[in-house]
Every structure is written in structure tokens, then in C-alpha cells.
What we know:
Layout (H helix, E strand, L loop, with lengths): L11 E7 L2 E7 L1 H5 L12 H13 L16 H7 L7 H4 L1 H11 L24 H16 L3 H19 L6
Antiparallel strand pairs: 1-2
Amino acid sequence: xxxxxxxxxxxxxxxxxxxxxxxxxxxxxxxxxxxxxxxxxxxxxxxxxxxxxxxxxxxxxxxxxxxxxxxxxxxxxxxxxxxxxxxxxxxxxxxxxxxxxxxxxxxxxxxxxxxxxxxxxxxxxxxxxxxxxxxxxxxxxxxxxxxxxxxxxxxxxxxxxxxxxxxxxxxx
Length: 172
């Protein structure tokens, strides 16, 4: 197709309905830019088109990109690299970071520290609250999924872990 005004190749196609009649216009990019009220942007990447389409139809709006006032890193840069720019980013991006940590660490958002494998020279393992919390969460999921065999195994594992934490006094 050729542009209706200058005979260059047409890249913009406009369809208007006026008085019940369909009117089609074929214009090149330069002539289309001269038409009032017609936004023309050449070579829009497909991912931008799709993002704008989804945002427009979901009722969401594109948030302005927030950057840490100390180092200037954005959330998107962190998601790409996996590295923060400074220690202030943990508090600045707390709202976005908390769900990410919960997914990565099975609901935990706070570091519990290392637990020694021995106490006072004995070979009895120390209490493992993180392991117990994980097992209880798995037990809850198994019950919700009605996987009662797995739930029974997890229940027994929890009891065994709790009994092992009580130490030799528990067996007396």
C-alpha cells in the first residue's frame, strides 16, 4: 500500500466510521504524524505493547519506578541482578522484599541463626525450631490436600524431632 498523501509506503492504517460509512486511510509515518490527535510512535517493542494492554485491561496502572535514595538502585535492577546496592535497600524495599523472602524460605522472614549440632559435648542434637516449623507447615499442607499417609508420617517425624530435643531426660 502507498501513502494517500505522498506515495511512500504506508505504515499507518486508520479506520474511521463517519455517518455510518467505513473510511480507511493509508498513510506513511511522516504524514500520520501530521494528523491531529493521532498518537504515532514508531517501532514499539512487543513486550511494551503487551504490558500496556494487560495493564489497561486489568485496571492496574504502571507504577513509577522507585529508587533507593542512598544508592539509586531500583527494584527492577535488584530483580535482574539479585544484588542490592547498599544496606538501606532492605528497609526501602521491605514491602516488595517480604513476600519474596516468604516464598524462598517457606514462610520465614527472619534469620534464626545457626544451631549447633551438639550441646555440652553430648551428641544430642539441639532444638531445631526452623525444622519443626517447616514440618508443621508441611503437615498442614498434607491435611489440606487430604494426603493422610504423608500427614501421618510428618506427624511421627515431628514427634520424633520433639522427643529428640528433650534429650536423655525424655526417655526416663
